[in-house]
Amino acid sequence: MQKYYxxxxxxxxxxxxxGTLLPIYTIPDHHDAIISREQFSMVQTIMHMRxxxxxxxxxxxxxxxxxxxxxxxxxxxxxxQHTVWAKGRDWECVECHDFLLKSKVIEDAVLAAYTELxxxxxxxxxxxxxxxxxxxxxxxxxxVLKQHPEFRLVKIYSDAGISGTLAEKRPGFMEMxxxxxxxxxxxxxxxxxxxxxxxTLECLQYxxxxxxxxxxxxxxxxxxxxxxxxxxxxxxxxxxxxQEESRSISENTKMGLRMRYEMGQDTWSELYGYRKGYVIxxxxxxxxxxxxxxxxxxYSAKEITAYLNENGIPSPKNSKxxxxxxxxxxxxxxxxxxxxxxxxxxxxxxxxxxxxxDGTIVPTYTVLDHHKGIVSHxxxxxxxxxxMLHGGGKNGYDxxxxxxxxVCPYCGKRLTQRNIHGGAWGQxxxxxxxxxxFLLKSKxxxxxxxxxxxxxxxxxxxLRLPKLKPSRRTAAEKLLELRKKxxxxxxxxxxxxxxxxxxxFGECETKESCFLMIRWKxxxxxxxxxxxxxxxxEYAELDKQKGRGKK
Length: 551
Hints:
The protein is 38% helix and 18% strand. By secondary structure, it is of the alpha+beta class. Helix 6 packs antiparallel against helix 7. The mean pLDDT is 82.
């Protein structure tokens, strides 16, 4: 403050304040800045060079960097008119007057020092037309090198089939930036600004970062060469056009895809178990069926992964199997012949961030029986139910294998399975009630249910089959089929769900009166005594005490 002061109150003549008579007051960082201190200082230096050189001559752009080779004094720039080189400016030594050279000659020589050239090429898709453009961009390198023999090519950096809206997703671009920072590149040549970037903010950020380390840019189509007279505003305008073009392309692509989806036309991508056109590859299909079978027999994704790797079965990428790959197969509806299109959508055309589509903002498109499935709809549905029982059951507890079939004998609410705190029965899982009055170890219940299942009289059920109602007949036929084709040695959801309607417990006030009753969907009822050391009430109280002790 007080950069000027009035010396005469009558004339009001103002004088520039140099701080000798009156102080100058400075407050650093008084408010938010529009430009950086470095840029402001650079501008002041340029202004000084242009207006305040020796004898008022412009010393731009070299200042006092040029030295006379004869007397070692600093050269000065002045206007000059000569019959040979006509009007212009030159740098001369004002001390010995033995050196004189035209300014443009020196500037051209300095510009020629930018010889380390990088060429950047990019196309956004893998289509044949785009790849031809990719090759054309590469071919242009030789033309540029012939036109500018002072350039030495460092490398052609390229990104094929990658959008220009996000730099970090382009490995070729990021490698080039790293080489610039390593001082390997002086100049980057690109056919057009849209090949360089379709994100205005990133375009300017990288331009400024490269400028700071002395790397210049050339965009052929836009005739932009940052070594010459150039404004950042022009770059931002061209970059905005490129970004808007990207947005328009993105919207048109989305609309085209949605029209295809509405007509039931899927976009093919590589899928384990199928070849293009959804032709089943039988060797891989057998692996998929095995994965579904193992999961139905309560193998976890981790255990299935270990089984596949131990047996030397190649993964979709011909490497080791991963649990995420197994879970992806178990969730994929295409293995039953259905397709769900637009399960995800891009929320931002600049970041390309994918969001799971719940159908609230953009629709999903389902085509049933689109192609021949590898597993049945029934098995696929059971596997999805098992996934929910393991990870998304009631209150987040693992509800395998009974789901909500168990009922508390005291309050009538559904039992939930959870980890128990141990005691006389050790660590494990148990089925308990929210009323905290009932708790039984999971294995005790499963042993009784398995014994009841194995004790069913198959001959009697087969004789009663014609007399049963359709729904009960279906359950009975499922039981007969299951007992003929498979040895059941454990309680699993794949047979409890179609066969058991509900499981009820007695009052269980004593160990001798603790029994359960299984109501089968084919009309029979099995009653079994549960062998247990304590009553469910006693176990529940013991678990509460152990839980308080852990806290």
